Amino acid sequence: MQERKQLKEKLNTQKNNYQNSRKNFLIIRSRLRAGNYNEKDLETTREYLNASIDYMIAHLEKVQYNLEQSNGSGTEARINAIEERISQLQEEKKAIEKAEDLEDFTKATESVRGVWNNVKNRTAVETGQTAGEKIDDFANKSESISRKLEKELEKLNETGVNTSELESKLENYNALMASARKNSEAAKEIYNKENATEEELSKANGYLQNALGEIKEANHVLKEIFEELEQYRSEETNRNRARNNPEPEFDDAKNGTENESENSTEEELES
Length: 271
Known about the structure:
Helix content is 89%, strand content 0%. The chain is mostly helical. It folds into two domains: 2-100; 134-250, no CATH class. Helix 2 packs antiparallel against helix 3, helix 4 (102-158) runs antiparallel to helix 5 and helix 5 runs antiparallel to helix 6 (198-244). Keywords: Coiled coil.
């Protein structure tokens, strides 16, 4: 939790630095385009490019942390790929430090933009693939849960319990998970494309968001099912305890006491 907090704070700091430096850069951009600039304007440009890269690196470090926590099947390779992209961006910073004139900065800007566009798309693909794997894993587990619940409902039904409402909720749960899997598959098809466009990647992200929303809703339904079943389980446990540990037959004991009292009274009258 501490590491997550630190990464978030770092990302926010770098984002603020980037936004401030961008404002300063936009002020002098027209002078750069007109060729009417000075040495201070070039330094403003350098600060803007460096702040842009620092923000990109902070973003990648956060993505890298999330991948490390996911424990997906291809996580290690994806983490290594992010390490390489961070190294690429750090190399770009070295080129920016060496820039001396407007031509150098123009080349550096184009290079940074090219690296970032590639990094952004590849990171979106790998993050989406990891999320899709987690959804698939959850969907597979849900099938096992569903089968167990079906058997439990069948047993309850055999004892005379009306399980129609619970069965309806289980059907809803299964439908939500099936839809989540379908959305995940649609996203996966896009992520597996060799050169998916930004528009396609945005569409894939929408599929994943739909899947995650359906899983959230399915978990809510599952919670309701378990809460209702817990009541029946408690009742069954109490019945088993009653069968295994019968209580004293108070009525018989009471009758015996009353008979003894009546006999004693009769004896007293006779005497």
